[in-house]
Amino acid sequence: MGGIGKTTLVKEVSRQAMEAKLFDMVVFSEVSQTPDIKKIQQEIAEKLGLELREEVESRRASRLFERLRNEKKILVVLDNIWKHLNLETVGIPFGEDHKGCKLLLTARDRSVLLKMGSKDNFLINNLKDEEAGRLFKMMAGDDVENRELKSTAIDVARACGGLPIALSTVAKALRGKSLHEWKNSLRELRTPSMVNFEGVSAETYSSIELSFNHLKGKQLKKIFLLGSLMGNGIHTLDLFKYSMGLGIFKGVNKMEDARDKLYALVHELRDSCLLLEGDSNEEFSMHDVVRDVAISIACRHQHVFSVRNEDVWDWPDEDALRKCNAISLRNNSNREFPEGLECPNLEFLYISLKDSSLEINIPENFFVGMKKLRVLDFTRMQFSSFPSSIDLLVNLHTLCLDQSALGDIAIIGKLKNLEVLSFFMSDIMQLPEELGQLNKLRLLDLTNCFRLKVIAPNLISSLTRLEELYMGNCFIEWEVERANSKRSNASLDELMHLPRLTTLEIHVKNDSIIPEEFAQLRSLSLGNLPEVTSFCREVKTPSASPNRQVSQEESTAMYCSSEITLDISTPLFNEKVALPNLEALEISEINVNKIWHYNHLPVMFPRFQNLTRLIVWRCHKLKYIFSASMIGSLKQLQHLDIRHCEDLQEIISENRADQVIPYFVFPQLTTLGLQYLPKLRCLYPGMHTSEWPALESLLVRHCDKLKIFAADLSQNNENDQLGIPEQQLLWPLEKIVSNFKELSLSGKDVKMILQADFPQHLFGSLKQLEIVGDDSTCFPIWNVLERFHNLEILTLLFFSFDEEVFSEEGSLEKHVGKLAMIKELKLYRPYHLKQLGKQDSKLGPIFQYLEILEVYYCARNAESSTPNNY
Q1: 48-68 per-position pLDDT tens digit
Q2: Cβ-count burial of 423 within 10 angstroms (0-12 exposed, 13-18 middle, 19+ buried)?
Q3: What is the DSSP letter of 417?
Q4: Cα dihedral angle (149, 154, 155, 161), rounded to 10 degrees?
Q5: Is 440 within 8 Å of 459 (Cβ atoms)?
Q6: What pTM value is reported for the model?
Q7: Would you call 292 helix, strand, or coil by DSSP?
Q8: C-alpha distances in angstroms, 673 versus 442, 476, 642, 733?
Q9: What is the pLDDT of residues 268-327, one digit of tens each?
Q10: For tag attachment on the chain, is the N or C end more exposed, with fewer CB atoms within 10 Å?
Q11: 6-115, what's its fold?
Q12: Tens-place pLDDT, residues 192-211
């Protein structure tokens, strides 16, 4: 049965398995009704960091098979299998081939799993009335408990047939609605659906249609129906390309603003349970049952013709084609196109082929009857040239030619109104100069065009309205701009002629040709570049004697004192790089010793003054993140996340020319994450003061040498010759914690808080606490509930208990009225735990507000019972 919760269940199992370190890696792929073998292979390969460029499935399978066999502990999840899937064809080892590779499969039909050789099979039934009622109440809110609504709400929940997907969507749709709307919805749910789908019940169909009808605004409904035509694993960028072409965001002038609007709408659909989370922030998915219902609605009410994964199908009749607003032929096996389709109202046309290796023949007059077409997407196709009738598409705003083998594309230059042009992962050798005529183009996507080497000179600089340019894994032979010399390829200096450019993804082999400034760049991600040592122009190192000022021709002004040792190692960004509008910077897996150019005087750091988000991970050579002199320029920084940097010793380096005790202020920083930093000792190695007025969320894990809190800096051992304590403190506790809403710490840091004599009000804002211990840590839960008296969510990982969580009976009576009334309690690997509390214990005041209790990987002899009065 579809919508029963299989996908949700296996994703949660996968998450818990990784949390418990049962596997080194979990790989997830949705198989769907008709498996796309290459897509499944690609999803698994990307998770493994394996690049599959082969077109032949068997060769891809062999490479994937060998790569998976090298993994010692890996879980492969294949979700939503409709028919027998040959694992060897995909390249997945199983059984005796590789015992380290475990498989978790889901299917609607048990016989499918049996045919594939699955031994341990579990049936998931519809929710029972009590379970369904709890889920419905959680999604609909407490209003369902009021006397006026209660009986109707119970009937509505029952009408959903115990299916989680129906319960969730209906409850979300009716949340906060009046009694009249509830009663009307109940009548609609009880009206039998006239549409039948394999594996979709009438209750489910009616529930999803009801949720759709309750969506607010035409934009939201259009985005939902458009997403249903896009298959599994929807990339937000693709949906954005279509949305812009269809003019859904009228009145929004900037693509950046339109993207924000799209993200807001996608988030609203997620909240309505009509969309699901994807593997990343840039993806989302739609349950196949929801998709079936959405396509049915689109076909019945929006004049949409859709075919998915069908080998044999017929075009609609002439009258139907004339009414069509959208046509979607996904994974199509038919390579023959009709002579001409008379579709005067068609605005959206999507056609993709199952097999991209066979060339197709598009008749010359194919586009003659589609003059209103706004979005055209040909995916996985092979053709040497376009039909001449394409230049009749005067209203075309979005053209996507992804994963295709393309020949002559010069005719695209005649599509003067084109705003979005995509060649994602296509086999293309060069971009001709004719594309420079697209003076309205706002987005160009050349990502993963591995064979693209040549872009006609001055083509890029001609696209003066370009706002977003994607060229990741695109190996252009960039040339340097020189006076009175003719170029045969593009130059990076052409980017300086794009005044509206806000997003740039680019691959450059030689950093010496990078222009000095990317004035409008807002987001930059540099990752998996082990050979890259700098993102900068080459700068001469001056032979400076003490107290000598270096000339501007040699370098940026720099004052060197004889008492200071100059760090001359190459930074990732030197003083030539200016990104004044940069807001988000992510750096990962780059072998550099430092990120920014060392300078006593903060002359360069205003070039990064708008930075709000910095993520650094797996940069193992870094010793520090910031220099002391640049902190004053980071007033906009809101999010700082540092992970898996093995040699990192301090966050701020002590490289000041004066003897003044520094004062560090992070006025906007709300979130700080420090994880798996084994050598991190301190914020700053010398005497200092710091302020963090906006900090709300702190996550510190596996930073064993870092002491998080102390009452004040006077607790340090200042007898050290250098004035630097053996174990420096991250910060004085009482100066920053009053704003904390979320904390994630080790057991030793929490015990320090519990043992110290701090005012009770310090933790008055704390709502969520996560504590990571080990099997030797005995956890004082009573002290935590008293100290953090407004706590709502408590998560404990890897702790030891004296058989019970709540074992100190006297503590409750002693501290009654002072303990936190937690709503969620989560225990992961609670060592020695046998029960929450004794059966005769009086823990009612603790449990009366508890809504969620989760216990994972407890002892085999643990009891699931709670105290009698709960």
Answers
A1: 878 887 777 888 889 888 888
A2: buried
A3: T
A4: 150
A5: no
A6: 0.60
A7: helix
A8: 36, 37, 6, 17
A9: 898 888 888 776 668 888 887 888 888 888 988 888 898 866 555 778 888 889 999 999
A10: C
A11: Rossmann fold (3.40.50)
A12: 555 555 556 677 778 888 88
